[in-house]
Amino acid sequence: MASPRSSRVDRKVAEAASIFAALGDETRLRIVTRLCRSGPQSIVRLTEGSRVTRQAVTKHLHALSEAGLVRGERVGRETVWELEPRRLAEVRRYLDIISAQWDEAIGRLRTFVESPPSKPS
């Protein structure tokens, strides 16, 4: 039986996986990048200068919303979409953990490669 702590960790990993899955699509990643750069925007603004239709952008925004990365708010006849900073912070924490693990692994490899060979007895 899994401990409550391991169940909580598994749940957090599953939640993070949904975020990374949502960001794994090029169009969705471009939308997130654009929202990061320019702040809240309507679908009309998000599709300007893009070859992606409003209908497609709407579909991608809903996928991002389901992952908790964006939220939309009705303003008059339009919906204005903005990033959900808490979820992006979670992504950042996971990337920091992965980066630290890679740094440690590279450090161990460097130590192994740079250490002098041991002489036979």
Quick structural summary:
This protein has 121 residues and is mainly alpha-helical.
Indicate the CATH architecture of the domain at 4-84: Orthogonal Bundle
Query: How many distinct helices?
Result: 5
Beta percentage is 5-15%
Briefly, what CATH class of the domain at 4-84?
Mainly Alpha
What class would the helix/strand composition place it in?
mainly alpha
Q: What is the CATH topology of the domain at 4-84? A: Arc Repressor Mutant, subunit A
CATH superfamily of the domain at 4-84: Winged helix-like DNA-binding domain superfamily/Winged helix DNA-binding domain
Numbering strands along the chain, what is their spatial order in the largest sheet?
A: 1-3-2
The count of DSSP E runs of length 2 or more, i.e. the number of strands, is: 3
Order of helices and strands: HHEHHEEH
Low-confidence regions: none
Q: Can you tell me the overall shape?
A: elongated
Mean pLDDT: 88
Largest sheet composition = 3 strands, antiparallel
Q: Can you give the helix content as a percent range? A: 55-70%
> What's the end-to-end separation, in Å?
49 Å
Evaluate the radius of gyration.
21 Å
How does this model look, in words?
With 121 residues, the protein is mostly helical. 67% of the residues lie in helices and 12% in strands. The protein is built from five helices and three strands. The chain has a three-stranded antiparallel beta sheet.
